[in-house]
């Protein structure tokens, strides 16, 4: 698929930044600065988008609040991937009627994938009259201009025009953490898996230029970030549109060469495009975290073809074998959809057998959710919800057994753990992550948050590991 990527000129982003000031002056507020409440649903790309929206809000002079009742501006970044995610958002948006009644000047904004879905903006216009601004992912870069129209013209603004998408550099980000950062390397998706709404709401694949990505990573490394995740709907397609001869493996190599003490993660990889060159590069790059998220979706060839995934069970298993041959300790995770239209019990059992064969470290399991406008939503779906639910539970139980077994194998080992937070658990007041990304509950005090320390793993559960800083454990040596 050939598309010409539109790049938003830098001057246009400067213009948006200049409009922030005026928007900030017009935002309602009490004695202090205007307070903004930002809520994010869905995937990491949405998290990354919200960091940029917060960047604009900071330019407007906003302070951030966790209490929507206190907020002068509410911004909800929505997800469209499953019906349930959408319904949850709409339920919460409905409840904001009361918040706004108590704070009449409050400005309510909705953005993200669900807003880009055909028909949604109309539904908000008709049924959610307290919402002031609706915009989709394509309009994110012009949020200041859209908000200013709401504030100046005192009318509701909707901007959800369909678009192949663009790239906007230079929008400042307010990061949620000082340790972990998302760096988008590309946007959109061209794969059109038959169940998926993403290509319809996020446009065609387009890559950021390598020098822009590297400049962002360099700045993050200098600022002390320890964990950087390169994001894209399908990172393996990185660079195809740029035609610079730089693919994702090359990009990974360049990011790895950025000086600093940080780990690199990336997601999501599509099995049809993830291959030998990437696996070898990963094995060679010392900063690349030994974690691979490789969504398989199904273990049955008929279902994979109906999903338009572009690989067979056998091809997928070959890639897993190759990856494990090159990086034996790799942590493998995956996404699976149970109950794709017409999936028989036998076909489901093929997925279960694939999961038993691969033994993932963790799995994200989803019940099929028909998304209006996608080909799968129009397929006959004779299997009862009860049978789908039973299959789903069987898969979850199988994976829980596998995860528990995998975690138990860590007990007694020493792991380099990035201590990333504190928890309310008095016995394990710290949390951290292994190089492969497994969660560790840690003893100790808050001193080492942000540092990489050796940790002796002393226990495990289905979902996590337990450990103590190795220095504090005399048995460790
Ligand atoms: N129904 C259920 N799960 C879905 N996913 C994407 N679209 C759907 C859908 N319509 C899952 C896929 C994907 C993950 C992000 O969400 O497993 O990898
Ligand atoms: Fe959706 Fe498939 Fe694109 Fe992933 S690769 S975003 S599942 S269409």
Mean pLDDT across every amino acid position: 95
From the spread of the alpha carbons, the general shape counts as: globular
Major sheet strand order = 3-2-4-5-6-7
CATH architecture of the domain at 6-166: 3-Layer(aba) Sandwich
By CATH reckoning, the class of the domain at 6-166 would read Alpha Beta
Number of helices, where a helix is a run of at least 4 consecutive DSSP H or I residues:
14
Content of β-strand: 15-25%
Helix content: 25-40%
Report on this structure.
With 477 residues, this protein is an alpha/beta fold. Among the domains are: 6-166, Methylthiotransferase, N-terminal domain (Rossmann fold, 3-Layer(aba) Sandwich); 177-289, Transcription Regulator spoIIAA (2-Layer Sandwich); 414-472, Beta Barrel (OB fold (Dihydrolipoamide Acetyltransferase, E2P)), CATH 2.40.50.140. It is 36% helix and 21% strand. The chain has a six-stranded parallel β-sheet with strand order 3-2-4-5-6-7, sandwiched between helices. A five-stranded mixed barrel has the order 17-18-19-21-20. Bound molecules: 5'-deoxyadenosine and iron/sulfur cluster (SF4). The site of iron/sulfur cluster has 10 residues, from helix 7.
């Amino acid at each position: 698929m050939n598309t010409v990527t539109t790049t938003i000129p830098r001057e246009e982003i400067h213009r948006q930044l200049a409009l922030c000031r005026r928007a900030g002056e017009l935002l309602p507020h009490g004695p202090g600065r205007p307070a903004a409440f930002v809520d994010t649903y869905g995937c990491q790309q949405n998290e990354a988008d919200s960091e940029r929206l917060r960047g604009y809000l900071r330019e407007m002079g906003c302070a951030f609040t966790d209490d929507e009742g206190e907020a002068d501006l509410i911004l909800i970044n929505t997800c469209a991937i499953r019906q349930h995610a959408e319904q949850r958002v709409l339920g919460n948006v409905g409840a904001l009627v009361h918040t706004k009644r108590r704070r009449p000047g409050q400005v309510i904004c909705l953005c993200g994938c669900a807003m880009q879905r055909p028909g949604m903006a109309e539904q908000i216009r008709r049924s959610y009259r307290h919402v002031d601004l609706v915009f989709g992912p394509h309009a994110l870069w012009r949020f200041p201009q859209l908000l200013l129209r709401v504030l100046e013209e005192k009318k509701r603004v909707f901007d959800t025009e369909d678009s192949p998408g663009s790239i906007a550099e230079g929008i400042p980000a307010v990061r949620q953490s000082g340790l972990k950062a998302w760096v988008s390397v590309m946007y959109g998706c061209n794969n059109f898996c038959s169940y998926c709404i993403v290509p319809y709401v996020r446009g065609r694949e387009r890559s950021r230029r390598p020098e822009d990505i590297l400049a962002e990573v360099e700045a993050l490394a200098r600022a002390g970030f320890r964990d950087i995740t390169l994001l894209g709907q399908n990172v393996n397609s990185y660079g195809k549109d740029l035609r610079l001869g730089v693919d994702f493996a090359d990009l990974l190599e360049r990011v790895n060469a950025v000086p600093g003490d940080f780990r690199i993660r990336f997601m999501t990889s599509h099995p049809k495009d993830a291959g030998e060159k990437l696996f070898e590069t990963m094995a060679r790059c010392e900063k690349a975290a030994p974690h691979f998220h490789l969504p398989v979706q199904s273990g049955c060839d008929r279902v994979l073809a109906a999903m338009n995934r572009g690989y067979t069970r056998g091809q997928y298993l070959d890639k897993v074998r190759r990856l494990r041959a090159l990086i034996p300790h790799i942590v493998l995770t995956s996404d699976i959809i149970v109950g794709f239209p017409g999936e028989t019990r036998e076909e489901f059992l093929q997925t279960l057998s694939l999961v038993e064969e691969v033994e993932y470290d963790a799995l994200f399991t989803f019940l099929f959710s028909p998304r209006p406008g996608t080909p799968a939503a129009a397929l006959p779906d004779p299997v009862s919800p009860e049978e789908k639910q039973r299959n789903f539970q069987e898969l979850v139980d199988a994976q829980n057994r596998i995860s528990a077994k995998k975690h138990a194998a860590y007990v007694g080992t020493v792991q380099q753990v990035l201590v990333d937070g504190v928890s309310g658990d008095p016995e394990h007041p710290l949390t951290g992550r292994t190089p492969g990304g497994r969660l560790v509950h840690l003893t100790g005090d808050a001193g080492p948050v942000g540092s990489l320390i050796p940790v002796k793993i002393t226990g495990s559960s289905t979902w996590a590991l337990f450990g103590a800083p190795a220095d504090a454990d005399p048995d460790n040596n």
